[in-house]
């Protein structure tokens, strides 16, 4: 079980009132919290403090949340939840495609916010090393998915996947041939025990296809089952 005392969270938000509110509520749950109010400061703190989760606003001084996320994804695999005051679908898709693990539109309920924080941390803490057993790589066609090393090979090439792309691929590979609805994937991969936004799943599937498929427009591995969901098959 993930407990607050085991986790450090970086909150990046230039709205001081919201920053104080999130910081207070996270600390009440026992999390260690560090904060930043602009994108440049966020990068410095993330590199120095190595947080377990980053809560990242999009509209920030100096560097936008998008720019911060792009840079972080090249340097570390920490889960990222993006926040925005805009309900713009384009913003959401861009955020997910550059490697964000989750996305919330302001205003949001603190109860749902805390649930998503727990879900992201819970998924990030579950690793093969914790089981104490060696795990053989999963093989699907020319893909080799090494859950112990968190690495995916396509032929001789190493694929650069975001943490959530890897989690999604590994889950579907472990359940090869089985069809999962978007809600089921949100529960199994994202760890949500509440109704989430299924568009998140669609965006991650599309982005993952762009990396594992020879022709993403005609996927042969990560298949859509119309009216049901997705499956991975050879």
Write the layout of secondary structure elements.
Blueprint lengths: L7 E5 L3 H13 L3 E5 L2 H11 L3 E5 L7 H11 L4 E5 L4 H9 L4 E4 L4 H16 L12 E3 L2 E4 L4 E4 L2 E3 L3 H12 L7 H9 L8 H14 L9 E4 L3 E4 L2
Parallel strand pairs: 1-2, 1-3, 3-4, 4-5
Antiparallel strand pairs: 6-7, 7-8, 8-9, 10-11
Note down, in words, how this protein is organized.
The structure is a single chain. The two termini are 34 Å apart. This protein has two domains: 4-125, Rossmann fold (3-Layer(aba) Sandwich); 130-232, Winged helix-like DNA-binding domain superfamily/Winged helix DNA-binding domain (Arc Repressor Mutant, subunit A), CATH 1.10.10.10. It is built from eight helices and eleven strands. It has 234 residues and is an alpha/beta fold. The longest helix has 16 residues, at 110-125. Strand 7 (143-146) and strand 8 (151-154) form a beta hairpin. Helix 6 (163-174) crosses helix 8 (199-212). Helix content is 41%, strand content 20%. The strands form three sheets. It has a five-stranded parallel β-sheet with strand order 2-1-3-4-5, sandwiched between helices.
Concise structural overview:
The protein is α/β, with parallel strands linked by helices and about 230 residues long. The chain contains 8 helices and 11 strands.
- SS summary, helix count: 8
Helix content bin: 40-55%
Question: End-to-end distance, in Å?
Answer: 34 Å
Structural category is alpha/beta
Gross morphology: globular
H-E order? EHEHEHEHEHEEEEHHHEE
- In CATH's first tier, which class of the largest domain applies? Alpha Beta
Rounded to an integer, what's the Rg over CA atoms? 18 Å
For the biggest sheet, the summary is: 5 strands, parallel
- Which architecture of the largest domain would the CATH scheme give at its second level? 3-Layer(aba) Sandwich
**What is the name of the CATH topology of the largest domain?**
Rossmann fold
Mean pLDDT equals 84
